[in-house]
């Protein structure tokens, strides 16, 4: 566990006054506040650091403790001991397959360093917690494979001990967020509950590229078949299909297989297309006989 | 107007420690809707996350009302640009 220099985080002098600290905090908070930096993990990380530094330096008692211990940081055993004996509290939940965290407002999870010194988020007053009416929104991340996207999925998630039955419509996009109304934190004194936001991350370990409901793939066509025409077998998401290659097929020819893409999101029965790009495969090693046939071909002045 | 979907401006302001004029300014700046129920101004609960965000920015970061209006519009643009970038990235990926 590394020592965190909170003065450095806020960019203030060790002798800075409360006012200077407040000013420095506000300046940095305006830069990194999550409300001003949507979907920016880096800003969120910075905001947490700035918030934590402010939590310590703006509180005279905590600042004093920090200043005292900070001097002797090389003798950190005391902290380690304290850390081991203290139960970890107030951390964000981690569930199999997905993670969730609270969002909106001040970040309230702190570094190990902070927790070892001040005992975690529950170890001090509710200064950072705002009076709320509506419950907190929760964010969760769920991973699916591209194959899963082909059919509507039903999954059960457990968030804060409550089971939520979830229907994930086929054709969901990578990075798409679904709002589950009322499954966030409870409201306060009759206020409405927050919402649960689930962001999907689609892992594509197939040979297909995806754009919306359309799929793209390059397919190799043997030289002879490209010249004379013939039949090739192509793997689609749902199985193999046989395709006719026209005589004189160019390298880079594009072929559309209608309806062989992914289902269109929330449009039942409609599918995207599969676009194939033919790459003519040039044979690299020839037998003696093949080579002589090519030489005969060359003599015909074929261009 | 379904009552369970609305909360009175008065209640909201009491809970959040802001003056009612704050909410009416947000209405004036077309950031949210206000409905009238007899003499009470009412907020749709769908607007609460946005309004709470504005309260946070105002209280925690000292941003004044004009600043909030500007932020509201810029955030809208940031979000639509982020979506556009994501969609362009996906398209670009198909060409690789």
Automatic annotation (TrEMBL), chain A:
| Entry's Gene Ontology molecular function annotations | unfolded protein binding; zinc ion binding
Residues of the J domain: 5-70
User: Compositional bias of type Basic and acidic residues: which residue ranges?
Assistant: 32-47
PANTHER family, from UniProt? CHAPERONE PROTEIN DNAJ A6, CHLOROPLASTIC, DNAJ HOMOLOG 1, MITOCHONDRIAL-RELATED
GO BP terms: namely: protein refolding
Q: Does the keyword Zinc-finger apply?
A: yes
Taxonomy, superkingdom? Bacteria
- Name listed for the protein in its UniProt record: J domain-containing protein
Q: Does the keyword RNA-binding apply?
A: no
- What organism is listed for this UniProt entry? Flagellimonas lutimaris
Cellular component, GO, one term:
cytoplasm
**Gene3D superfamilies with a match to the protein in the record:** DnaJ domain, Urease metallochaperone UreE, N-terminal domain
Q: What keywords would UniProt list here?
A: Metal-binding, Repeat, Zinc, Zinc-finger
Q: What are the boundaries of the region Disordered?
A: 32-61, 79-98
Automatic annotation (TrEMBL), chain B:
- Organism, by scientific name, is Flagellimonas lutimaris
Question: Which top-level group of life is the source organism from?
Answer: Bacteria
Protein name, per record:
MerR family transcriptional regulator
List, alphabetically, the Pfam families matched.
MerR_2
């Amino acid at each position: 566990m590394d020592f965190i220099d909170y003065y450095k985080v806020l960019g203030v002098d060790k002798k800075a006054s409360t006012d200077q600290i407040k000013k420095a905090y506000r300046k940095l908070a305006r830069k990194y506040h999550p409300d001003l930096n949507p979907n920016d993990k880096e800003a969120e990380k910075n905001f947490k650091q700035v918030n934590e530094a402010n939590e310590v330096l703006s509180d005279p008692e905590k600042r004093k403790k920090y200043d005292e211990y900070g001097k002797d940081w090389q003798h950190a055993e005391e902290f380690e001991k304290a850390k081991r004996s203290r139960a970890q509290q107030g951390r964000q939940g981690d569930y199999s397959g997905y993670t969730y965290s609270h969002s909106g407002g001040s970040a309230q999870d702190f570094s190990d360093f902070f927790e070892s010194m001040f005992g975690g988020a529950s170890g001090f007053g509710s200064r950072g917690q705002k009076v709320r009416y509506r419950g907190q929104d929760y964010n969760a991340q769920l991973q699916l494979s591209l194959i899963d996207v082909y059919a509507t999925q039903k999954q059960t998630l457990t968030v804060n001990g409550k089971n939520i039955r979830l229907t994930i419509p086929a054709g969901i996009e990578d990075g798409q967020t679904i709002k589950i109304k009322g499954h966030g934190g409870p409201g306060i004194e009759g206020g409405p509950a927050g919402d649960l936001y689930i962001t999907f991350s689609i892992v594509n370990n197939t040979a297909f590229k995806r754009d919306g409901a359309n799929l793209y793939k390059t397919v190799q066509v043997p030289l002879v078949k490209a010249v004379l025409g013939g039949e090739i077998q192509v793997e689609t998401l749902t199985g193999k299909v046989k395709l006719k290659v026209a005589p004189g097929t160019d390298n880079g020819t594009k072929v559309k297989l209608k309806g062989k893409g992914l289902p269109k999101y929330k449009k039942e029965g409609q599918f995207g297309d599969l676009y194939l790009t033919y790459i003519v495969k040039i044979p690299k090693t020839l037998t003696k006989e093949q080579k002589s046939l090519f030489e005969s071909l060359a003599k015909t002045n074929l261009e | 107007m379904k009552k369970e979907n609305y909360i009175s401006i008065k209640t909201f302001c009491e809970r959040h420690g802001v003056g009612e004029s704050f909410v009416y300014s947000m209405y004036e700046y077309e950031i949210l809707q206000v409905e009238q129920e007899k003499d009470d101004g009412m907020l749709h609960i769908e607007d609460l996350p946005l309004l709470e965000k504005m309260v946070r920015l105002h209280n925690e970061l000292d941003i004044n009302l004009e600043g909030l209006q500007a932020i509201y519009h810029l955030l809208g643009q940031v979000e639509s640009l982020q979506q556009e970038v994501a969609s362009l990235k996906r398209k670009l990926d198909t060409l690789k």
